[in-house]
Design a protein that fits this description.
- The protein is of the alpha/beta class and 110 residues long.
- Helix content is 36%, strand content 17%.
- A 4-stranded parallel β-sheet has the order 2-1-3-4, with helices on both faces.
- The protein is globular, with a radius of gyration of 14 Å.
């Protein structure tokens, strides 16, 4: 079953979050293709049926190391919104995490 077949109307009735991150300011400056690819994940959400108004890009963690997750306000926002049931899907650079079955998670490598 492909990723698009796993997406249900229940997913689409909630937000699609696009989490954009680079761990250092040097990566932000030098890895522009990676950053552009991450922003491009919003296009994939639109292709899969989310309205533009239901797609939120969270990019406040650009240049902030994940080593100090407490400093990543964007990640904290993402987790809070998922826990509140507001999110139907999360797109991100390359997460290898477990997730509740009610939330779809897709990687930029998917």
């Amino acid at each position: 079953m492909s990723g698009s077949q796993k997406i249900t109307s229940s997913h689409r009735s909630r937000l699609a979050l696009i989490y954009v991150t680079q761990s250092t300011l040097l990566q932000v400056r030098e890895n522009t293709e990676s950053t552009a690819r991450q922003y491009g994940l919003a296009k994939r959400a639109r292709q899969l049926g989310w309205a533009e108004s239901d797609i939120t890009v969270v990019d406040t963690d650009l240049g902030v190391s994940g080593r100090f997750s407490g400093l990543r306000a964007g990640f904290q926002q993402l987790v809070a919104r998922v826990c509140l049931g507001e999110v139907g899907a999360v797109w991100c650079p390359d997460w290898r995490v477990r997730r509740p079955s009610s939330v779809g998670c897709w990687s930029s490598r998917a």
